[in-house]
Amino acid sequence: MAHVASWKKEVVSELTTRITKSRVIGIIDIRGVPAPAFQTMRTNLRGKAEIIMLKNTLLKIALQEAAKQKTGVDKLVDSVDGQCAVVTTDLNPFRLFRQLDATKTKMPARGGEVAPDDIEIKAGETPFKPGPVVGELQKAGLPAAIEQGKVVIKRDKLLVKKGDKIPRDVALVLGKLEIFPLTVGLNLNAAYEDGFVYKRDVLAVDDVQVLNQVKQAAVGALNLAVFASYPTSMSIRPMLANAHFKALNLAVNASIANEETIRLMLAKANAQMLSLASKVPAALDDELKTALKGAPTPSEDRGGGEPEKKEEKKEEKKVSEDEAAAGLGALFG
User: Is the pLDDT of residue 55 over 80?
Assistant: First the structure.
């Protein structure tokens, strides 16, 4: 049986204990992060999360040992690949992802790195004065020239395609142009909480998009409640407004006079009278002729309860998306 150094047993035991006592455990990828930047990131996370670096073999053993007390945590083993570290925290996996994502920063290329995106230089003036820099730009593949005492890029140029390695000459020129193509930071590969492992594709959600989806769902639920006549604290107002409009429309069409309908009934009668008068212009007196000139066109006068319909719609619009979202819980009890 191979001898195992005592220090390895000790660090595995310590990490196992920490994993079993932590609410959330994550595996982070630290590839490409310079040591000074990593220490700064680690310091910024202090009090929110703790990062422990250990050889992958020992990290896997610790996860497997912790699984004896914390069911399912050994599923994180599949996410241990390359330069990894383990992070323990009380933040939920989604908050942890955002915290780690906030550590990312742009960095210049040194040469030899894989371009994460197309690197394209646009045509135009540069901040350089005429001199040897023109030759450096040309050597990197840029169509540089001197025009009117300024160094310019004569046309757009794609220097490196996404997925290709960045040549050393190009990296030097990008640095001079203050173009930093690399993004370095701590990437959360997966996180464990309450028996579940959340992978990166699940954790990388757009907060704004999700909030908008919730608001749209709330508005849709409110619409459904109104049309299904399902009264809640949020739906009762538009329901009453809709009922009021229908009752008013029925009263006007049935010629039931009251203090609310009389104005609409008189307006409807006046419009009908003017419409009839327009058919016999020769028989009209001056007063009716004047009235006809100021009468609304058929497209403007829809008669009956249409004006009230606009008021009813206006009333419904007062229910904002935020109010709808607030009432979603009330809608479903």
Answer: yes
* 298: exposed, middle or buried (Cβ count in 10 Å: 0-12, 13-18, 19+): exposed
Cα separations in angstroms, 105 against 97, 115, 227: 15, 15, 50
User: What is the C-alpha separation between 58 and 4, in angstroms, rounded?
Assistant: 11
Is 109 contained in some domain? no
CATH, residue 126: 3.90.105.20
| 110 inside domain | no
pLDDT number for residue 191: 93
Q: Is 189 in the same domain as 315?
A: no
Number of domains forming the structure of the chain:
3
Q: Tell whether 299 and 285 lie within a shared domain.
A: yes
Task: State whether residue 239 is helix, strand or coil.
Answer: helix
Contact of 100 with 88, CB cutoff 8 Å: no
Query: pLDDT tens-digit profile of 58-96?
Result: 999 999 999 999 899 989 999 898 888 999 999 889 888
Q: Which residues contact 161 (CB under 8 A, 6 or more apart)?
A: 115, 118
Instruction: State what percent of residues in the chain have pLDDT above 70.
Output: 87
The predicted structure's pLDDT at residue 255: 86
